[in-house]
Write a structure and sequence with these properties.
The structure holds 2 protein chains of 2 kinds.
Chain A: H1 3-11, H2 13-21, E1 24-26, H3 35-55, H4 65-74, H5 79-106, H6 115-137, H7 142-155, H8 162-170, H9 177-209, E2 223-225, H10 226-251, H11 277-285, E3 289-290, E4 293-294, H12 295-316, H13 327-349
Antiparallel strand pairs in A: 1-2, 3-4
Helix pairs in contact in A: 3-5, 3-10, 4-5, 5-6, 5-10, 6-7, 6-9, 6-12, 11-12, 11-13
Chain B: H1 3-40, E1 52-57, E2 65-71, E3 74-80, E4 86-90, E5 101-103, E6 108-111, E7 116-118, E8 124-126, E9 135-141, E10 144-148
Antiparallel strand pairs in B: 1-10, 2-3, 3-4, 4-9, 5-6, 6-7, 7-8, 9-10
Classes of the chains: A mainly alpha, B alpha+beta.
Amino acid sequence: MSLRDWLDDRLRFRQAAAFLHKKDVPVHRHAVGYYTGGITLFFFLIQVITGLLLLMYYRPSSDAAYESVRFITSTVRFGWLVRSVHVWSANLMVLAVFLHLAVTFFGRAYRRPRELTWISGALLLLITLTFAFTGYLLPWNTLAYFATKVGTEIAGDVPLVGKAVLVLLRGSEDVTEATLTRFFGIHVAILPALTTVLLGLHLLLVQIHGMSRPISVPPGGRSEPFYPHFVLRDLVVWVVLLGIVATLATFVPWPLGEKADPLAPAPAGIKPEWYFLFMFQTLRLLPGRLLGIEGEMLGVIAFALAGGILLLVPFLDVWAQRERSHRLVTLIGMVALAFVVGMTVWGMVTD
Amino acid sequence: MDASAQRPARIGRRSFLDRVLTVGLAALGAAIAYPIISYLIPPKVKEVIHASVVAAKASDLAANSGKIFLFANKPAIVLRTPDNEVRAFTAVCTHLACTVQYRSDFRHIWCACHDGHYDLHGQVLSGPPPRPLEEYKVTLKGDDIIVSRG
């Protein structure tokens, strides 16, 4: 008996390989959308590798965090590259997640039997944004300090549980070292664990059901095997993206900023990162009081509701379940997209 | 030219492309691995090493007692013998680098990890230590015990 057979008897990898081989990818004019998931996965893998590297030198305390990041970027060989790639890839990953969301939404990829694929994806979107929010604080610089202060303050606006959520997030009444260690734990342990489970489920479901055919594409069209045809083109895209990330990280290094000083006033024109800007801008535009309650609170409730709706899209779009593409769903999607993009741009151009 | 003459040329092009791809991927792998390996090698941190250090106050160090202090970023021990002589040694055991201590009941230096005994000159009395402890130079300046490399 060969070693291969001996191992296969125990590991059954031939069965696993057969399972991985059986997936087909439909070929049509919207097929470029299939790359968005793989692109997100690629950026996630970069985050894992560079994140593990940063952990070798990072120290999560208010005395040492900023200094340790500065040590990484100025003293450790290629530390500037590792840190800059981590930040750039994080931003690009958020962008890729949003693109993937748009592609799957407008293609109605959530229709039967892919409802759980959608829900796991929506939860992964939430996890991605939490990754971004918690990771942003870790260098313990002024911008991060105030962004976290404002961000957690907004969470405190949630009715009834707000105050408890705020203290739970911060680990104390204020943003302190307790917040830093808490965010560190969330960023490097809790979220990776949750992601492993949800991403595993998400990818398993994609493997079981195959790529979804967009609703506008009639069934029975051409398709190609996932392996090796699609995988190889996926890998080419990954190599190109690696080049782009490395170029950006090298020529547009991410600044470290000033060390956070809890006694210093907030700098003028302070804004959250671009992916939170649409929420920030919306909350800023709301009047102080609206419909008898605080405007801010109303905004937070509205965003929480929107998140809930996003999660339940597969069950709300009753037409898609009958293979029908309804104009109303497209319209709502377009309005939401225009709102997010419009508010982001508006937030960028105003001080 | 007949078909059989063309065939080897086509295979040659294919294997040539295969080789180019292999070399390209190997170069990519090296370009990724090199920064990562360099990154993992800890950078040399400049340590301020003083030639001498104030180890203790002479008045605080009773006869037949010792005190651990930091010298050149490593533990060192200063002790006053029962005969009222002040001496200093490295406190890093020569066996497996545990920190030694002065035992008043033994009246000599002892390492707890593997029961190594050193006399009041740092020489090995018993146990596994292969070499004596390095002795440092002690200077008394007023009440300060100043330790430097001998």
